[in-house]
Protein 1
Amino acid sequence: MTADQLADLIERMAARLLAERAVLNRLDAATGDGDHGSSISGALALAVQEIDALEEPSPQAIWLTTAQALLNGMGGASGAIFGTFFLKGAARLQDAQRISQVDMAALLEAGLAGVQARGRAQVGDKTMVDALAPAVAAFAAAADFPSAWRAAADAAAAGAESTRDMLARQGRAKYLGERAIGHVDPGATTIALMFAAAADTHTAE
Ligand code: ADP
Ligand code: MG
């Protein structure tokens, strides 16, 4: 992927989350404080603006700008978690101008490791990690770039759905105990939507 394609990717993710903002807020209202859709879509809209304003939109600058928009524009624990995902990926990019599937797999893996180091969530804790971990694994295992995004999107969607029957061990939802059961985690749904948006993006190497 080129820098232009990465910028387009972030834009599509932002548009998708904006379109689903009310759905995500409603999911968060059931297990948290109801702000997730507004805060993630607002922060990504900010990322798109700031990417447009970059003088040298390299892949690393695009990923770093997205990280900073999430860290600053989202606030709270989840801003740090979603921001860390892009921040750790950005550190991997250095001065690369084109991103292969193998590069992207390493980027996503670094992001996931950063998220887990920061938030301490494991698969099964009813967080975005339940969608992200299987998506990253599916991406790395796929044969080529377009099928990697599609496989990751499918794995993320299944991972998000799997949170429905879980008790929460991280985030605000953990205070609900048994009452969290029956509700899909909003952050995991966001990850599924982000990968779905990526799967719709042109990703020729
Ligand atoms: P807040 O809980 O601060 O209001 P959001 O509503 O924006 O933040 O995001 C909530 C989402 O953050 C949850 O649905 C969950 O997926 C994710 N999350 C919360 N805590 C953690 C954690 N420790 N590790 C990974 N993800 C987490
Ligand atoms: Mg919330």
Note: The chain has a mean pLDDT of 95.
Protein 2
Amino acid sequence: MNFKIAVLPGDGIGPEVTLESVKLLEAIGRKYGHTFNFEHGAVGGNAIDDFGSALPDSTLKTAKSSDAVLFGSVGGPKWDDPKAKTRPEDGLLAIRKGLDLFANIRPVKVIPQLIDSSTLKPAVLEGVDFVVIRELTGGLYYGRPQKRWTTSRGRRAVDTMAYTEKLVGRVLRVGFEMARGRKKKLTSVDKANVLETSRLWREMAVEIGKEYPDVELEHVLVDTAAMQLVRTPSRFDVMVAENTFGDILTDEAAVLCGSMGMLPSASLAGIPEPGTKALGLFEPIHGTAPDIAGKGIANPIASILSTAMLLRYSLGLEEPALLIEDAVGRALSDGYRSADIASPGDTVIGTQQMGDIIVSLLG
Ligand code: IPM
Ligand code: MN
């Protein structure tokens, strides 16, 4: 089969790790007889520099006309001026919104080989395997007004957390569906003791839950959820959360897996039927890591695992997705470590070497 993949490497370590994922896809193509046509697009800070926009129209067009989007990361100190009119992150927000990718799937599965890389005790990490579904097109990220101004009594700023029935309902349904295919437990995260948007969220979770009597539904306040994530993370199966809550909780959850460099993500407009194609965007959850950018030492595994999700969710190719996930596990079993997941005494390898080793283990 022929597939068109939009490649948006972005800033910082984005290009380095994305290159390894492209390499993986090429190897998968050779193995299974698929052709991947890669079309590159500018996004983020470099796009601001070159085109004056964090998401040039041409990039959005490329993304819309492709089968899947492989995304790196955006941002960096160069564009961090709080007074700047456009920011690299605007590009990511615009593409999520532009493609209506409302369901951000972030699997958190502790790989036993890395149990010692985490700062948490091994006993806490045993059996951790859950998925966070983060709402991605609403909430604090998109609510308006959002502004900063000066009054006679000083500076002021406002952000708005807003949700509609439609936005809440569709992401909750993804949560219930996903739980149905797993251990049938859905944790709906909210702050219903304080926020009106959360009270709508909880009310709708209860309503929609009636359509899924086989799924056990629980409501957990976001602060409690943050605590439980490090105390008893194995209690979770599927979590569904508002945009900002999901953002915060998944950085925390990355610690369970040893490093931010391990967590992949898929942003979708709903869960496609197995075996069908559906446009999605796939990106590591880590940022641009400006401190190590260009050094060739970044961990490409989060991007590579995102590529496995790309094959699974956007292209309907489960077998090569499993093959990549298995090759990552074997590279780790063989003792290969990038700097972020290395323990004292480990042999540390760079970004490209890790990519090459995973390619070689595809068999
Ligand atoms: C993420 C990132 C982004 C977000 C940033 C880069 C805008 O932190 O994907 O989690 O906050 O959504
Ligand atoms: Mn984040």
Note: The domain at 1-109+263-363 is CATH 3.40.718.10 (Isopropylmalate Dehydrogenase).
